[in-house]
Specification:
4-stranded antiparallel β-sheet, alpha/beta, 24% helix, 15 strands, Vcp-like ATPase, Chain A, domain 2, 253 residues, Rossmann fold, 2 domains, 7-stranded mixed β-sheet, 6 helices
């Protein structure tokens, strides 16, 4: 049964689907408005109608919905990349993670989801506007409890030591590899994302110089299928290059 404060996905079709936090407000769409108070007490899978008698379904949001529907002030790391990050890194319930470059909080939300209930994400963001936007997105996603947001720039070192994973998402990731090395547990992994080959090459060279091994880089592509009777085929637009992911493991020099 849905309660006040719960997250729901209000779904009509692929163009009209909205992530809502139930707070007794009125939600407006091009198909009319819905009093979210009327959703309280319903179950996931139920239908609800707008004042124009248009139907929406009340669905349980997935982590994909939480990450894709953050309010964006920056480019986000997409689920196609987040998925491989979660598999390649040491992320588990109770993990302690450093993230540099909160952005809009998409990856932050995913990391927080997997470290709870006893872990913590220490997320650094120097831009005050991005910092506040990330906070609001995490509050909406009911995940702020597992994130310690820090509105500060890192130069020589992080506040945390012996963490299980470090994620660097800034324009010049090579600058923070030495501080990341100091904070990361030996044998554990670091990751970063670079949009260009030049940044990729410079970052890998710094990783090798600092004391990392098992270095790998990759680009993740996805291709969705258009589902329409009689014309089912691949979609013409695909989310292709968003960045090169780099993974590396810390060794003791």
């Amino acid at each position: 049964m849905i309660r006040e404060g719960d997250l729901v996905l209000l779904y009509r079709d692929n163009q009209r689907n909205y992530l809502l936090k139930i707070n007794k407000d009125r939600f407006h769409t091009d198909k009319g408005f819905i009093d979210t108070t009327d959703i309280i007490g319903k179950n996931f899978g139920d239908k609800i109608t707008t004042n124009l008698n248009e139907e929406f379904y009340i669905l349980k949001p997935t982590l994909y919905d939480l990450t894709m529907k953050v309010k964006r002030q920056t480019q986000i790391i997409y689920p196609k990349d987040i998925g491989i990050i979660l598999m390649k890194a040491n992320i588990f319930s109770g993990a302690r993670i450093i993230e540099v470059g909160s952005g809009s909080g998409a990856l932050t939300s995913a990391l927080a989801n997997f470290v709870r209930p006893n872990g913590k994400v220490y997320s650094y963001e120097r831009n005050k506007i991005f910092f506040e936007n990330t906070r609001k997105n995490l509050e909406k996603n009911n995940l702020l409890e597992w994130v310690e947001l820090k509105n500060k720039e890192v130069i020589d070192s992080f506040d945390e030591e012996d963490v299980d994973f470090v994620m660097i998402d800034i324009g010049s990731p090579w600058e923070l590899i030495p501080p990341a090395y100091k904070s990361l547990k030996a044998g554990y992994r670091l990751s970063t994302i670079c949009p260009s080959f030049e940044q990729l090459t410079k970052t890998v060279a710094k990783l090798e110089e600092t004391g990392f091994t098992n270095i790998e880089a990759m680009e993740i592509l996805t291709r969705r299928i258009l589902l329409k009777k009689g014309i089912t085929r691949p979609e013409q637009r695909i989310p292709s290059h968003t960045g090169f992911l780099i993974f590396a493991s810390k060794i003791i020099k």
